[in-house]
Fold each of these.
Amino acid sequence: MTAGNSHPQRDIRQVEAEAREWFMRRSERALDSSEQSAFDAWMQQAQNRGAYRRLQQIDRSLAALAASEEGARLRQPLGFGSLLAKLQGFLGVSPVTGLAFACTLMLAVGTLYLAPWQSEPAAQAYTSALAQVRNITLEDGSEVTLGGDTAIETSFSSGRRDVKLLRGQAFFRVSKDPTRPFYVIAKGAEVRVVGTRFDVRSGSEVKVTVEEGIVDVARQKESGNAPADKVRLLAGQQVSVSESRLSPVRSVESGRVAGWRQGKFSYRDAPLSEVVADANRYRKHRIIIGTRELEKLRVTTAFNADQADTLVAMLEQSLPVRVFKEPDGRVVIWPGTVDE
């Protein structure tokens, strides 16, 4: 290898190493202000940005695979032998592509998502399609209703019942079993019950709403497994959990909890990002919010699932926004004025 060829390869490896370090650090915890500034500066370079985005694509692909029934099968002991080959085929990445770092990360992250844990009970995955509402009866008799484009994973043992909400929204009717508490884990939030009815929505933050019974909600620490904060909810109460805090407890009408099961969505002073995220799980073409500021815009509105396609027009009429439809069907919302 000539010096002229080896130097660019060293640079590529350095970029890949830096991308891996940033990716893992941001996955483990929130960056402090100085780290965030350094990361933003690093991402200004096109080569760095490209390497980092390839890692994000791999991570999203693996998460989708892990949430599927195929992912559950791969977690079985006999499935591990074909894990790497399956991932390579799934992601379209192989060592000859030159993305050596992608293969390394693919194996590392794939092991994290999919590797079998012999000491743990086998997990079972359930998913719903876009705009589908699916009812499931779990092995303990508990019932779960999945909202559109939702994925959960269950793992029951003799001492506890665990459900991971990987994406979307789900309503739980938990069978009583004082000897085996029922846990729902979603994005750093932990919900613990014995037998009750409640709704969990996973988005930019996790929202828990109780229809019947008592539910304990805890926010996990950024590192470690010990809960940082926790609150007890009663019927008709709701709380939101983000990376940084547990919100104050709010009162809701218990008779209107999880109205999405009947195809009805209603919001009172909710962020636009929440409304759009829900609509995107019930329409073919995605709605994209153009700016971070718009994501925080507060909205009070209501729509039915079969109106998800017309929601954009409703928002444009009532909010200071402009809407553009892309050739591929996506809709982008940008700031506008009330007069426009």
Note: Residues 74 and 82 are 8 Å apart (CA to CA).
Amino acid sequence: MCGIFGIVFAERPRRNLGEILRRALERLEYRGYDSAGIAVVDRGLLIVRKDAGKVAEVAARYNFDSIQGTAGVAHTRWATHGKPDQSNAHPHIDCGGIIAVVHNGIIENYAELKEELLAKGHVFRSETDTEVIAHLVEEYKRQGVDTFTAFKKAISKIRGAYAVALIDAENPKVIYFARNLSPLIIGVGDGFNIIASDIPTVLDYTRRVIAVRDGEYGYITPTQVYIEADGVSQDVSSRIEEIPWSAEMATKGGYPHFMLKEIYEQPESLATTVAGLEWPLLETAANTLLSARNVYIVGAGSSLHAGLAFLQLLLRIKVTPVPIVASEYATYEQLFDKGDVAVAISQSGETIDTIKAVRTMREKGVRVLAVTNVVGSTISRESDAVIYTRAGPEIGVAATKTFTTQVATLSALYVAALKTLGYDTAPMEREIKALPDLVRKTLENTAGAAKDLAKRLKNKPSAYYLGRGAALPVAMEGALKLKEVAYIHAEAYPAGESKHGPIALVEEGFPVLFVFSDPNTREKTLSNVAEMKARGAYTIGTVPMKSDIAKRLDYAIEVPELGELTAPILHIVPLQLLAYFTAVEKGYDPDKPRNLAKTVTVE
């Protein structure tokens, strides 16, 4: 996830344009902070300043505030293609140094486009997917069309998730834009207009906003907003909205807490994850797993739960991984040997327990495949191969979007293994691509129920989260969320195991939450529901939409159902919401849970 911004004036503004762009980048830094840059058009010249580092560092190094101009774009980066350094920082330019582009998202077919452009003599300066856009526009302009026509042709060639802003020094009072899946809004000003990744970034200048829709593209000038879709001009004036947010709310995108904001960002994060899946890399990794002597899955907290969901999938193809709690790796040390493969999962790539496990495994000859969200992190550097989850920055301490993107990434690795074994994986690939929309629907359909249920649970001292088979890791993650932010003792168990001790605590009104994400275990789980109800438990469940299971429970939250790959993600979403709303009902700040840190860097 990256942040983009662009603004165009009729004349030089009273405040230097570089300062305006720097302030916008500071607003957007929550979306990415490994590098930053700006491109400004002034008197027909394109000026680009960019580098690795936080916004304040880069802005001071290149004295952004002194740069004047009439139109400019800016970018703060969360690396997805290429390490964080100056060459990969945005904006990216064409061969002639006339066109500059900033981009948030993933261009799936950039490699083939780059190959075509290289064959035509274009010179690339970065490892990014974004740079192809600048060269595509340049290429079409060489064929004699105007910039907007060239931009539209370029956009029609790219596939994936993107929000793009582009300036051309030969058309200095225009910023071109396009959106697919990645967020983009227009701020409508008086004598200027703005394009940006989010609303808070434009509120210093205007409260009049237009949300750009998927598939739309167009341009802004100081006095005009033009939007087009499928070659048809769109009505703009009727779509302008007045934003009433306070400044404090604006920093969180209108949400009261980062945790809730990040729960609702999951459709976007998953879209980026899905668009960024590198199937050749996944198939190579799958081959390594399938030929391994032993497979280990190592992680901590939510990352371990994502690994356990992956383990459930691998069992179906007769791969029997050893799950390892990262801090307990020494217990398994005697097993580690050449020919083994470990999947090390860490959202930050800096979890010390996982790092120590990775180092020990590699010393013993184990090949390590890292699954992480942070490019250039310790685990990514010290592993034999790495798959990035591309969730974007997560500020809330409780993992939400980093967990679901881990599960999605590992599900894709499982699909790659199936493909390697000769299975027809087309239906599963379609299922993974449907994830962003399904999660969006789940959020819409379950938030009200989760909020209502939070009122009923807020005074309960304990709860059980039960599931069988592939539902168990989801139950474990749901229980962890409730403990982390609502401080309610929540214990996850295999539903069948609950008879062997835990049921002794159940009395009238004791909340027991069942996860019905695994279709293969639902009948047996219903038997456990009956056992708990017989002892007075208040039974709750996340259940498939329009199933009869809801009738067997005291309280049911219905979620969409598509297949086994998407089920863990769709069932965890209402449990994330339940934990969040329960914390708020109890008066706690879910962004700052006591005793917890976002990244655990001590043993």
Note: The chain has a mean pLDDT of 93.
Amino acid sequence: MKILIISQWYDPEPTFKGQLFAEELVRRGHDVQVLTGFPNYPTGTLYPGWTMRIFHREVVRGVRVLRVPLFPSHDSSARNRVLNYASFALSAAVGALFLPRPDVAYVYHPPATAALPALVLALVKDVPFVYDVQDLWPDSLEATGMVSDHRVLGAVAWGMRRLYAAATRVVVLSPGMRTLLGGRGTPEGKTDVIYNWAYESDLGTNRDSTGVAVTTRPAELPDAFTVTFAGNLGTAQGLDVVLDAAEILRDDPGVAFVIVGTGLEEARLKQSAVDRGLEGVTFLPRRPVTEIGPILDASDALLVHLVDEPLFRVTIPSKTQAYLLTGRPVLMGVAGDASELVERAGAGLTFPSGDASALADRVRLLRTMSPEARAEFGARGRLFYDEMLSLRSGAAAFERTFERARPLRPWRLAVKRGADAAGSAAALVALALPIAGLAVAASRALGTPVLFRQERPGRHGEPFEMVKFRTMNDARGPDGDLLPDGERLTRFGSFLRSTSLDELPSLVNVLRGDMSFVGPRPLLMRYTRWFTAGERRRLDVRPGVTGLAQVSGRNTTPWDDRLALDVDYVRGLSLRRDLCLLVATLARVTRRSGVVVDAESIMQNLDDERRDREARS
């Protein structure tokens, strides 16, 4: 697969989805091209040895990289930040046009402006794109104080909704973030959760065969049970909780807290520790990721903490993965997804954000545990990282997402939708009289209402109301329950089903955009949970009035084969194929081939079949 990575930041700048990610995709057999800017983050000045020019092409360990010019900046000036983002977006949008057409584009967010090249590629070269949301806009813009004007924030929120809608698939870093985007209109079926990974080449490598760290304890660490926090020292981290916990543990000289890093709160925290006479707290200067490993390895526990804000409940701080990889017990003070991840991994203890007493209690508990019990926390964390969070597992998940996005080319879908709208409108006009006549006949045969309405899963599994002509009466047994379908199916209803005339009202669903003329048939809502991960691809497109499975056996095809045909249709999506399937459908309807008016009489329901299979396994 030809994959284009679009990211404003790339190695040698610090970024999670940089060279390691690209190299892993190359190792998995893909042709990877990177579109990025000249390195200037996080200082805002061009890295030594680099000169800005229109285009800079290079090949880095098998990865082709195109760098485009931008306005380098990373200070607190909103004007300069806008220039930085906008300059990259515009020059990358031009640069993208000079690259070979990829099968799929990947966009790393933030900033949201990095999506502009992908939008241009979608418009000009019909390229689907995957949008990787690492940071929620406008929430983070408001939380960091970068933007405070509510009109601007409202405009950004509107733009983000449009961007999520334009993306072929969306990737987020936590389940909570997927739920949150779902509440903002992005279908959860369109969104994949793929956890970030750590800088694996720089962390967790100094271990013996049993996983125990072999790094020499740095002399700057205190000779005590050491709890280390490493990272940005900002207001969001709420590190007063560390000082408060240290004060609670003041009488225990065997416990020490180490704070590694820098940030806006550094000076105030240091002064507060001095004023309070907290000898058990040590501040160390910021270390690059290549040098932090020995400190993490030598610590007895590693601390993550953020203040309790709604935005942070769906955030998993990046240090979490690094701590798990390091194989040390984790103390997690971030509510929501981050705490759930540590509990799921069995990698440490959690405590309420901002609760210094609880933090002190957890430290005491860890300290009283045997070294073997603490090592078990670390081992479980390391194993969980390898299986669920590693670069290898993350790249494999992205590969599956790219594969799902690949056939969903924007122009192809737009033309298909246009043909559906025009065709259904024309058909409704042309067939108005026959449809009215069938409605009258249905009314006389079955009474009112003449239409059957039922909720079915649409694109991305979003429910819609499907309409058809009624074919069954409402006869009930002595217990008041409806009789089986076969006993309620009338002679007139059998005629409608055998001729597929009961489907004519579904033209309204096609006109509204709920359905397409061709696509996987919309099954019952209760069936959706029984789809395998691969079978869920049938939900990537609008359901159809007819489809590949219908012309390949209609209702006589076993469920496994029918769903496999649906997925095959999505993988090979093309307008030409749709036309062929429409012709084949008309031929089968004319011949009444494969007609089964009561499908339940010859096949189990999908949920019953798979429930039985699950019970047998």
Note: The chain has a mean pLDDT of 90.
Amino acid sequence: MSLILLASFVFLLMPIFLLLYIRSYNRHKKNHVLEKQNMQQKFESEMLQARVEVQDQTMQSIATELHDNVGQLLSLTTLTLNSINLNDEGKAKKKIDNSLALVNKSIKELRELAKLLHGEQLVENGIGHAIDQEINWLNKAGTYELKINNLLIDLQIASPNKDLIILRLLQEIINNIIKHAQATHIQLDSYLTDNILHLRVVENGVGFNPEEIKSKKTGMGLNSIFKRIEMINGKLTLNSASGEGTSISIEVPYP
């Protein structure tokens, strides 16, 4: 008799446990969906921020180039033209030729700047070309001895979202070098092996203690780099020490 009662009790409890299980499952499923939505929103927000920062960086490069390069070329053209003495045909012709050369150089520089205005196009042409463009601007500064090994130029595959983040990472690294490193030599290697994109930047600057920077919470640029590499499931290795320069290696599953 007691066995029958126990069986009946268990039988009655089963629907309750089943309902509780279904309810828990649905709650877990709903939380999972919400979590995915939040992650997607966060990713899109970061992508938008990266896009804005790339555009800001591009506009800063254009402004600097207009002021320091094109502006100087046009000023020199004006000075040369103003100094022409038409009574001295030989010198006048030489100065006009020099002025034409300066104008042509200005036009060439302006065309390069026009390309930069299409910031998105940097990435559309592939991450290899975007890296190449950044290095060209760095090279124009004439401040650093550069050793570049960019093997991504002819890359036939692309990942637009990742490309944008990788480009922004490179810009952030270069900005940190310009602002803080006091380096004279920069080496960059980029290549793709086994569906992993590798980007490595090494400089011979003053170096720093990464743990000290993290503990002081002053390395906002460094924190931004780590945060973004995490977004694209990448891996970042940073080695630096006072007086020994810095190396940053990035690995990203690609495409």
Note: The radius of gyration is 29 Å.
